[in-house]
Each structure stands twice: as C-alpha cells, then as structure tokens.
C-alpha cells in the first residue's frame, strides 16, 4: 500500500503540490488568532508600507520592528521528526529543494536583522502546546 502511494505520476504529484498554500495556512491562522485574541495587531505577509521585507514574513509588527514566520516543519527542514522525514520518491530533488529553503530562510533572517528587525520563527510542531506557544509569542513581542 505504501509503495503505490510513493509511485505517483508526474501529473498527480503536480496536482497535489498545487494545492499546498504558502499563505493563510492553518498553522498561520492559528498563530494569528492567538495573537489577535491577546490584542496584538499586525500586518500580513511582509507588506510594510511600500517596501517589501525580505522573506515576506507572515506577521509584521512594524511599530515594534518585529516579524514572525510560521514555518511548516517538512518544507523548511526543521530538526523535529516531521522535518527530518526524507521522501523516498525523488529523494535527491527533495533534499536539494529543502536545503535551499533552509539556506534562503537563514539569509532572509540575516537581512531582516541587519535592517533592525527582530525575527521569531514558529514551527508547525510547536503549535501543539498552545499555552507554551502563547507565552513564547508574548515574550517575544513584549521584550
């Protein structure tokens, strides 16, 4: 059964990948909801006035000069179990793609910090412990 799942045609894989969103994901909506309920207001996806911020952060707190990225563990190659899962099909492609994503994320973080922004990355796996997540978000925004 698992073998047939790994043997998708190019068209099937393309259809599956086209359904994956980069904005307004469930993890991002959860973080936004938690912060909004606590009274925080923010801009979305790196639009700060006319200038675009490097990496298009998911949440921008311009007055505080702080940004938050909400990253999927698999896509951004997190150190957790999900992030370290290596697809069997087309393994070299996925390894290279995810490595480039990790490198791009690091560069964008450096660019933001050099421009005077503080950056927090919230990983998808961290959403399971809501009280801890709320504490972490509040500590970052109030520091």
Automatic annotation (TrEMBL):
Function (record text): May nick specific sequences that contain T:G mispairs resulting from m5C-deamination.
Domain of life: Bacteria
Alphabetized Pfam families for the sequence: Vsr
Molecular functions per Gene Ontology: endonuclease activity; hydrolase activity
Family under the similarity heading: Belongs to the vsr family.
UniProt EC number: 3.1.-.-
Key words of the record: DNA damage, DNA repair, Endonuclease, Hydrolase, Nuclease
Biological process terms in GO annotation: mismatch repair
Region of interest (Disordered), ranges: 1-23
Name of the featured protein: Very short patch repair endonuclease
NCBIfam families: vsr
Membrane-spanning residues: none
Compositional bias of kind Basic and acidic residues: 1-14
């Amino acid at each position: 059964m698992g073998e047939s799942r790994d043997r998708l045609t190019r068209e099937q894989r393309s259809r599956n990948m086209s359904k994956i969103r980069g904005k307004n994901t469930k993890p991002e909506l959860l973080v936004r909801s938690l912060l909004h309920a606590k009274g925080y207001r923010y801009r979305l996806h790196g639009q700060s006035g006319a200038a675009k911020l490097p990496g298009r952060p998911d949440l921008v707190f311009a007055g505080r000069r702080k940004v938050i990225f909400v990253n999927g563990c698999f896509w951004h190659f997190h150190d957790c179990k999900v992030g370290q899962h290596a697809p069997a099909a087309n393994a070299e492609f996925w390894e290279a793609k995810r490595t480039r994503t990790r490198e791009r994320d690091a560069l964008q973080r450096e660019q933001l910090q050099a421009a005077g922004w503080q950056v927090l990355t919230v990983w998808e796996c961290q959403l399971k412990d809501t009280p801890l997540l709320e504490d972490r978000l509040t500590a970052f925004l109030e520091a």
